[in-house]
Fold each of these.
Amino acid sequence: MDSNHTDDSRRRFMKGAMWVISASALGSGVMLSANASTAPELSQYKPVFFNDAEWHFVLAACDRLIPADDNGPGALQANVPLFIDRQLQGDFGQAKDWYMKGPFLEAPAELGYQSPLTPAQTYQKGIAATDTYCQKTFGKVFADLSAEQQDALLTQLQSGQVTLTEVSAKQFFDFLLQNTKEGYFADPIHGGNKNMAAWKMIGFPGARASYLEWVDLHNVPYPMGPVSINGDRG
Amino acid sequence: MSRQEQPVDVVLVGLGWTNAIMGMELAQEGLNVLALERGEDRDTVPDFAYPKMADELTYGVRYKLMVKPAKSTITVRHSLAETAVPYRHLGSFLPGDGVGGAGTHWNGHTWRPMPEELRLRSYVEQTFGKNIIPKDMTIQDYGVSYEELEPHFDFFDKVLGVSGKAGNINGKIQEGGNPFEGPRSHEYPLPPLKRTLNDTMFSDAAKAQGLHPFPLPSSNASEAYTNPYGMQLGPCNFCGFCERYGCINYSKASPQTAILGALKQHKNFAYRTGCEVIKVNLSDDKKTATGVTYIDAKGEEVFQPAKLVVVGTFAYNNVRLLLLSGIGQPYDPLSNTGTVGRNYAYQMMGGATLFFKDKQFNPFIGAGSNATTVDDFAINQIDFAKEGFIGGSYLLAAQTNGQPIHSLPLPPGTPTWGADWKKAAKDYYGHAMSISSHGSNMSYRDCYLSLDPNYKDDHGLPLLRLTFDWKENDLRMTQFMKQKVAALAKGLNPDFLKVSFKDIGTHYDVRPYQTTHNVGGAIMGTDPKTSVLNRYQQSWDVHNVFVLGSSSFPQNLQYNPTMLVGALAYWSAKAIREQYLKHPGPLVQA
Ligand SMILES: Cc1cc2nc3c(=O)[nH]c(=O)nc-3n(C[C@H](O)[C@H](O)[C@H](O)COP(=O)(O)OP(=O)(O)OC[C@H]3O[C@@H](n4cnc5c(N)ncnc54)[C@H](O)[C@@H]3O)c2cc1C
Ligand code: SF4
């Protein structure tokens, strides 16, 4: 799944790393670089899947779904839009693993996803329709609304109170929220969770995956910071 | 015309737990055994190697190790009157794909069934009278008893290296184990796993209410271990990437770590991957199979001749293969005739999440089956006549992973996004534990499997159609468990409590994950009118076809299925080795 991107980013990472040390903590054969931060700046990133209008929408929406404040990083600081851009180019966006043969019938919600649209198409149609709706209602696209207006609109998309042309507002919102949280908490190898800041905020140690000596230390906060699959330490 | 391969004695269709077992048993017998697996080859190294396994997005959320619905899925509807629609992406259940099957990414909860569950209809009728069984409930006896299976449970315990504490050894109740379980001939091969905070808290609360807590029997090894095949397991390190992942550590018993490494040493065993079997070929009189037809990785159709065909493709896939092959009569719920597809059942779950501001659970310290459990509300402990349902559940406090994308419980009323969501994630990650119920599901006349008239796979073959919904009996059972779980939860006095059990009238929902404990459809029994297989899991109609897996269950257990699935595979293997090979033919006369 998205193995191309993973490999690419790993290659980019290996090129970018200044030096590597072997880390016994990660097991033999695993190389680890000390705090090599290779995550690109979001402002420098040129999206591949999204066009300019779509990119503005996604930046604005992610900023409202997980805003920056003193509690921890916002979705933009965590490079979530970059993560989404990559996901939509890849297997997830193209629904490569999903059964997408017709007929596509109306069915009760409990019977699951029945749209003929891939997630990538849902984003494209959802963003265009939301911006059209905002233009009509406020005379501005979504990205140019005030934070309060944006929050109100996202709430309406989520509850299906607004109807969009050609796409389910709720389905569109659900993908957007799901992918935003994924990009926030996934291993940085996928492009989001920059500097593992979201993991640090909640106290998740990432890819350490070895805790035998800590199991019966009850009610004691785990003392070590996160590591990522690439071997970065948080 | 399809290409033809060299004949073999035995062809195994699928290479998960069931056919790893059958492969070992029949290779030991000296037969020429070939396994055909539709997915790719997989082993601990390189496929499950650290650190790539510790990737929640790829494996836990995008399901890299599971079946791809694009290649294989089913359609679903709630009732006979509806048109079924495809299960387009995974949710409710996560079937395996590739060598090892779902046994690579299971949790390792390793329960034996209760003796009463194997003869459920008889137990209910004898204990409470025939009248308490609702009209369209089609529960049956398995046709094989706990006592007959006990040696196989015992051996499979040793193959898996189960960590646990016995509650009943040869009828003598043991302190610290499950006092309600059937008698076992031996203690578990390994002691229980170390305990996490959540399950010590659950254990105290349960004891305070007069219940009998004990450690969940677990196929995550608590110590270094060598099984009867010489396969070695290392102690589980509570890596927190267990269910949905392959074990990085040779600790979770899987077909690879427990059997296949040894089986591959047998020169008379071979396996081919990328081979999807689409049909069991039959002789002209339809009384015997001549082999199987598969599509190989290049898309070529191949006929594989074999004297014996063992189907172990996972519960509902087995049913589809029988229907596509014309083995047995398809079930028709209207006329109540035929058998193939009859008695599909699932699992009834519920749960509570407890939040404690001042407790740190370190939820990422988890093993697939690290839990404390009680069985005080099991099938043999409930007065069905008084309570008004048939069934039971075990209750458990488990801590299996703290992966934040798909398991970040937050207090009730927390918004799903925005600054307040983020603050709650920061404040409450690591401060929640859960108590769940894992329960039985009865079978019904209109819950069944058939070929879908509208949807096809890439080969142009019809998908399997599932007709299923929750019934009042089972919803009443889960509502009963809700009271018990809520009482235990309140006993622990959490700051916040979230209780989630299905209400009466709830419809089956394919979206959230529940369990991959799909059962029935090719059930075993004593009467060919109401079962597809005889008590040895041999087809009533085609005697050289055996069908393994939870498709044999006439209704679901209150437990996880794999111990019974494995023991039944050993039971069938013994019948093949000791009886069938000497006198090929039906092992039970219809
Ligand atoms: C996430 C998860 C957690 C679980 N946790 C537990 C647990 O804790 N305890 C428990 O008891 N059980 C658990 N289970 C269930 C357990 O994994 C199964 O009971 C067990 O693996 C079934 O073994 P099987 O051999 O019948 O099928 P599988 O393991 O599914 O193997 C069947 C194989 O057949 C192959 N196949 C299918 N169709 C074809 C075809 N047409 N041609 C060729 N090959 C084919 C598949 O690719 C697969 O590899 C869990 C399952 C999942 C998915
Ligand atoms: S929790 Fe234990 S058994 Fe499970 S994958 Fe990790 S090391 Fe293996």
Note: Helices of chain A lie at 3-16, 52-65, 80-89, 119-138, 147-159, 169-185, 197-202.
Amino acid sequence: MKVPVIKTLVETQNLEALVAAEEAILEEQTPEITVEGADEGEQLTHVMAAIWILNHMQDHNTDFKTALREYTKKVRVSIS
Amino acid sequence: MAVIQATDTDFNDVLTGNQKVVVKYYADWCGSCRLFAPKFKRMSDDEAFTDVAFVDVNAENNPEARKLAGVTNLPFFAIFQHGKLVDTVAASKEDAVRTLIHKLEA
């Protein structure tokens, strides 16, 4: 998982485009937007992270950094 | 066979109640985990693994079950026999998981 990729998606895409990309990857299709990643799994992780962060920013009225911190907490706790 | 969803509350019961167990540790944020879900379900229906219990554990919400296998990455797979940890692998490839399951003794 690469934070710069997630940041770019958050800054350049809207929720609709990200959800469409998520569905495309799940259906083994090529998403319309460019999503970097070593494989489909990492691409999907990046898209789902961007969706989670955008939703968190909207729901909690926070900036990207704050939402990213909350997201990385979730990730860290899963593998520590 | 259906994939069993286990939590910290019933994880030990699942391990001791089944002779051979393969656990897939996942998280909702993990894309590779989500892509692997249908493969894991398909493997649970495979006749080669009729004596193996397939178990899903959400690693984010179940620290005790996670620590029991020493989860370092996701998706992460662990095999247990007679309630004891035998081996683990962090992988997204079906072949790696099949190889792991075959390590369970007859």
Note: The interface with chain B takes residues 25-26, 39-49, 52, 71, 74-75, 77-79 of chain A (CB under 8 Å).
